User: Fold these one by one.
Assistant:
Number 1:
Amino acid sequence: MEGIFSRPLGWAVVSPDPTPLADSPFRSEPSARDQAPQYVLPLVVRIERAEPPERTDALETAARAVLRMLDDERSAGDGVWAQAVRDWQDARIRKVVRRARGAEWRRAEALPGITVTGTSAEVRVFPPVPLDGWPKELVKLQVSGTDLDDPQPQAGAAPGTPVLWFNPEVPMSAGKAMAQAGHGAQLAWWELSDEERRAWRDAGFPLAVRTADPLRWRELTGSGLPLVRDAGFTEIAPGSCTVIAEHPALR
């Protein structure tokens, strides 16, 4: 579970959580998934110097980009991306977010993938690639040096909107948080029926990213909703509980 804008490991607070781990790709303990070839889902966020995106919008746009990749017909059956997606999901679920601007962004857009646009953010997601097999147009992109902010406090999510709740005790960079939002959206997607997935897709994959207050977070951890435990590859301690996905269909 990787992101951009790295910080040292070991400073994040790991919140207790009763959710069983089972055989999940979102966990720090060794499992059979570690023996499979490792793939990564690349995401590139457009960050122009003059007009960087807002942080929350970037997180929400990254989450929708992951959903678009999972839902795309090229990712299923005999689709051109299907084998790569299966190989990726059979191993650890890694997502890496890098940033691009200007000509870098134009080169990224020329590669096969899907661009998702939010209010202020643009994120392009690409089919999974081997951990050490990034396209040359992406491998050169920066993975550190910039963070994002919200100019206004977060408003409440609209009623009925799926919410990806972030742990208030685990701060992280914008890039890391974008990857974690994608993880949360993916876990919710896995839990939904085909009919529920279609309804979410037809509505345009509405979702909100919010940071829970401590009391709300404790309530959520006992709810049985999908929860992301970070594997600790970057920034935060292994096993940290980062995101809980609250989709109305999962209540």
Number 2:
Amino acid sequence: MRSICVYCGSNVGADPGFAETAALLGRRLAEEGLGLVYGGGNVGLMGIVADAVLEAGGEVTGVIPEQLVNLEMAHKGATRLEVVANMHQRKQRMFDLADGFVALPGGFGTLEEMFEMLTWRQLGIGDKPCAFLDVRGFYRPLAAMMERMVGERFVHPEQRDDLWLGEDIDAMLAWMRAYRPLPNGKWLEGKKRTALR
């Protein structure tokens, strides 16, 4: 594992703990020799995690669509800043550059990006670890929703278990380094299709 993609808000959020954890994660990535791949902005939690990596001597690669360069205020201090044509190219490029994915607190975009990675894994397109860093219980309602999806037979239990959700950064990084993906396409087996009917 050489680099981690972090999805997070372009705002700092209401709880100061969000920013504190973003900075802590950035420092830990640099200490672990892991490069940061992220959305390329210098505002909100995005800017905080990038600045923390850089201040700790780590490498930061930002990937940002042309239309967001001004809106999200592209981080001019990033080690590398790639400007792409659109959001689809951004997500593909971030996937190509990263060996794993972490979601800090954020909004619609944060969830959309992480759930696309989870969906790609289901389809056998990707096999990289995905983790939700649950700062101050931010993702507790989402964890309950995922349990509901399992209970209502829209998601298999092993798919729900094939991600990490918790508060401990060190435990998360250890899990990501040791991650072994489910066999590609496992969810498509006939037995499992029948089980969801």
Number 3:
Amino acid sequence: MVLNRLALAGLWLALVIFAFGFAPPSDPQTLALIKALSLGQWQDINPVIIALFNLMGIWPMAYAAMLIGDRQGRKFPGWPFVAGSFFLGAFALLPYLVIWPPPTQTDSQTSNSASSKVAKFWRSPWLGRILFLLAIACALGAVLLGDWGDYWQQLQTNQFIAVMSSDFLCLTLAFPLLLAQNLHHGQGMRSSPLTPMAMVPLFGALAYLSIRRDHNVTE
């Protein structure tokens, strides 16, 4: 899956170049905005921005559901990169996906013998279902209540909004590449006709996580 890794590396490089070379200037109110979004003080914030910020918390959870629990015994465990993605998004996560090695029979056996409650939590379809419902709520809030004209203006003038939006796009595009690597190496639901749904941006990925049965984690 060399092409997948090249595509992931290209996404990360494009994100870095945009963020540090072409993004709009920073806004002096950015820290106050992040604090308000984090604390749920949303009264005067565009619902589109609120939805995007919350979705940037859902995406790392979705990637954790794919990565945590099947990399035990590897030189580069996934959890530090996943943890970093809650703060840095694709900036932290994409480098790991680029170097993410294919599983071997030994790793698969180790994963089965070392199954833990933590792994079961992250790889449970119930987590995918909760994330799916939360994503729907975010999308409905943005569509029904959001000011898209204001969002478009901020996208062109506010560094935080522009970079967060680009980050969201990169995570959206990277998930099908990660899934393709999983299926290529015999994980996930290779034979299921429902697998292509994961190629649908965001909701398809979360729907996939909601219905999969991962045989690498003991029930």
Number 4:
Amino acid sequence: MNVPTAVRASAERLVVAATMGPTVHDVHAWRFKVVSGLIEVHADPARFRPAHDPAGRGLHLSSGAALVNLRLAATQLGHEAVVRLLPDAGRPSVLASVRLAGRHRVSREERLLYAATLRPFRAGPSASGAHPPLTVVDELAGEARLEGATLRKLPPGPNSGQRAVLTTRGDSRAEWLRAGQALQRLLLSASARSLVASFVYAAVDVPGVGEVTDPGETPQVLLEIAQVGDAATPAAGRWTGRTTAVPAAARAAFPAVP
């Protein structure tokens, strides 16, 4: 089926915008493909590193983050983006499909989040700085809920930032994609509030997580969120990410609370 020229032009523009955004993975181990009225997100076997991520969990998290960039780009063009996760059981490499639906009126928050996708990715160590206001942390938790995940606050650590864990109800491929979307939305929202965040999504046991999660919740990403400089103001922040970590490094970033 031929794709209308206007639809293809919009889709291709969105693909470019989405790939320019920050990624929570070491490489872009996914690719977009414009098909009949859809944009598909495919796992890219040429760039996927199964030796380091045999189950593909990091790949799904990264692809979920890319989906958020794509959706935000769609809003800037006035489109509603309808997402289906794992739409074709016969093609497991297709991680998601995005259909450009009816007209969408972009909100101020969507403009701020999209602006955050255009800032360069800055990798770095754990966040350090002032503890963010609890009201702001609660706002970030609300952003995570919009993507089907839960942000749980952890007890204070040796640094002054807020430790937290991002969880999902289950640990399937679809939940990994949801966690990636929630992580990206949370990071962009933190950036828009002048917060800095570091994260680790290595599968490790961290003291304190069991006490703040409910039965059935699966920890997906560990974060530390901090406020730098003056009080948080919109569109002036940055975020840092660590996408891989051995257990010892992760425990150093999130040590036990005395």
